Amino acid sequence: MWDNRNRILNWVQQGAIKHTDVQQAIIEGQGEPTKHQWLGFLQLAMLWLAVIALCSGIIFFFAYNWQDMSRFNKFALVETAIVLSCIGYVRLSFHPQMKTAMLMSLSLCIGALLAVVGQTYQTGADPWQLFAIWSLLMLPLALIGRSCILWIFWVAIINAAFGLYLDLSRHFLWLYLRSSDQALIFAIFNTLLLIIFETANYSHKFSFLNIRTPYLANRYTQQLLVTAAGFAISIWASDGAFRHSNEGHQLLYYTLWIALAFCLYRFVIKDLYVIAASFLSFIIVSSMYLFEALEAGADDAIFLLISLYFLGSSSLATYWLKKLSAQLDGTSNPKPSLKPDPDALEQAQQEDSK
Known about the structure:
- By secondary structure, the chain is mainly alpha-helical.
- It has two domains: about 35-160, no CATH class; about 170-335, no CATH class.
- The chain is built from 13 helices and four strands.
- The chain has a two-stranded antiparallel sheet with strand order 1-2. The protein has a two-stranded antiparallel ribbon with strand order 3-4.
- The protein starts with a helix and ends with a helix.
- Mean pLDDT is about 80; it is low at about 205-215 and about 335-340.
């Protein structure tokens, strides 16, 4: 439905369809959601709300009745929920959405079980270990489920584990980390995850497992990793703008990362979201370095100059991105031919002469 709508709007921009006929073209081209599609959307939304509400209810039940429950009751409740999720997955494996919902419920219940173990046996002094074990146990579920929802949740968990580890331990790989260095390590970590996901997606196979990649349906997981890595490296580069020391390499490494991301997602993978995010990050970071360079003669003119730079660069980036979007849409959805095919016309004339 959305593909038809985007294709029709793209034809309107190319002049193949008149603006006065847009609404009729959308209706005839099935560019609007039907009642059946709205019903399917509501059913899917209710399904996920039910899963989240059920798992949240179990967690809050523990929090409210923790002092009144014995150890046996605590573990029995969570393990019962895990068993029921497994049974639901087996019974509903023919339904893709229900199967994904059951795997998500199972993942949340596993996290609840680890939390109960940590609170019961007082192992919560190292919270990063809980998230690390949780991500390790959830990895097979994400591979089985083949859903971007599970992969996004897995990425969030493993990033939480890594972030907590960096906060608790100042020594990583025998290096003493400052706050800015932690942002750099966090960016490198997400970049490595992104490389793994993009490599698997590009090759369509795990060569060492010889199975199909489970996240080919969309690019939400990769876009989330790009956002996390780009945000972290932008923070790291921005720290170098206001630190008066010999750390100009931060801008160099940041520019190299942005340039590689732009080239990769412009000419190889062609992801407009990543290109737009790269432009936004570069404009913000470069504005900070420009302000730091002109800070010596601080007056009102500097703020005016930086504002003009920000507005001008944003306008140019927006204009170029709109042209690139139309170009990418035109490549995926070619403009319909408005002129008759010469060969077909000649054949028709020959048939008429006969």
